[in-house]
Structure formats: C-alpha cells, structure tokens
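re: the backbone from monday

yeah here it is again, tokenized this time
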C-alpha cells in the first residue's frame, strides 16, 4: 500500500512540474494548503478517490495516468500479444547521428478498451519533466497491433504505430512504423520503431532493427509504398 501511495505522489509531482506549476499554484487550484499538496506528493497521506479525480481534472489527464504503475501485470485482452502492461519503445531521435531514444508504454484496461500512455523519453521509475506524454488507445487483432496517441498538451502532435504480428517465432518484440508529424517545418514523418517486453540491451541489434534497409527503399521506389517484413 505504501509503495502505491508513494507512486501516486510521484506522478502528481511529475505532472505538476511537467506543467510548470508551483506547489502554491496547484494548492490554489485544488483548494488545499501547500503543506497538504506536499504531503500528497511525498506519499505521507492517503487521498480519497474524489481527490484523485480532482488532481486528474486539474492536470487534464485521465485518472489512470496517476495510478498506472510499473508492476508488470498482463493486460487481459486475448488480442494483445504482450504478457506485460509495461512495454519499452525505441526509435531513432532523427538527429542524424543514429542516437536511439528509449521510452516506455503503459497499458491499462478501461471499459473493455486498451488505454495507452506513452512516456516519450522516460523510463519506468525515472520520469523527468522533459519527457513528453502521449495518451490514446491500443488496438489488437490476431495479426496486428496498433495504437494512436496524442500529446496531452498539444493536440496537433498525434502519432500512430502499427505492426504485424509474426505467425511463428514470437521473440518478445515488434518492429513497426511510427507515423506522425515532425516539428522541423511541421511535416509528416514515418520511421521504424520497436516495441519490446523487455529492455533491449544490445544497441547494435537495436540499430539494425530500426534501420531502413536497401530492400525496403527499393520496394518503395518501385511501388511508392514501404513494406516492412518481420524477420522470422
């Protein structure tokens, strides 16, 4: 129980700082004292459900963003290929130096839907105010997994991921396409991305998975579309 209360407090502090609120400003919005808000953030007092929803309303986020945790329970959906509710997400930063951004996804169930929170640039147990938060839904079938998310602070910043599921040799990760906008000139962009149930430590293997191959480029030139084949 104490760990859960502390984790909720950490999320409240994260979203407060992410939105550049001081303790005084948040306290005024919540109609509570600065000392009480500080105790909530430190996990020294337990809040009721109504207060939890009030925090979510102030931050303009779904309440599950405050209570999702980093324990790796499975998501109870037969169409979801993953055995964990925490997934690691990798793409190239796009800066030209082949630097990889590690992020993570938190999956939660609500009203029969798979809710997705992407902490871009964040890793479990170490969120910083510099990471971006995207919120949306995941969609699974017997052959595909996709999700669409929106930056909760910028509705123009929407991203979409899609991948096909391998028929055999499931190895705990998916390689797919990450599609959205780049704000370098505000233009559409498509990149390869990898989702994994466990952190991928081998950087060379990860770079290989994220690299657009010559075969893929040739396929695009001939048919005006990209084709991504999962390696069996």
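seq for it, each position gets an aa:
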């Amino acid at each position: 129980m104490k760990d859960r209360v502390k984790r909720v407090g950490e999320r409240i502090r994260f979203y407060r700082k992410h939105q550049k609120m001081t303790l005084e400003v948040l306290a005024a919005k919540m109609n509570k004292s600065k000392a009480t808000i500080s105790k909530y953030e430190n996990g020294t007092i337990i809040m009721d459900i109504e207060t939890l929803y009030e925090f979510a309303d102030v931050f303009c986020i779904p309440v599950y963003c405050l209570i999702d945790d980093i324990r790796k329970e499975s998501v109870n959906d037969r169409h979801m290929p993953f055995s964990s509710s925490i997934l690691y997400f990798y793409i190239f930063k796009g800066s030209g130096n082949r630097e990889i951004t590690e992020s993570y996804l938190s999956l939660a169930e609500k009203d029969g839907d798979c809710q997705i929170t992407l902490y871009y640039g964040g890793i479990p147990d170490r969120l910083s105010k510099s990471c971006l938060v995207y919120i949306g839904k995941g969609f699974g079938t017997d052959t595909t997994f996709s999700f669409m998310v929106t930056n909760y602070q910028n509705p123009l910043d929407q991203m979409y991921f899609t991948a096909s599921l391998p028929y055999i040799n499931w190895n705990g990760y998916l390689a797919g396409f990450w599609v959205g906008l780049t704000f370098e000139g505000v233009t559409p962009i498509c990149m390869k991305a990898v989702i994994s149930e466990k952190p991928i430590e081998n950087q060379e293997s990860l770079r290989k998975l994220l690299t657009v191959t010559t075969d893929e480029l040739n396929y695009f030139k001939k048919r005006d579309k990209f084709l991504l084949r999962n390696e069996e």
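Residues 82 and 197 are 7 Å apart (CA to CA). The helical segments are 2-18, 23-30, 34-42, 49-59, 64-67, 203-210, 214-223.
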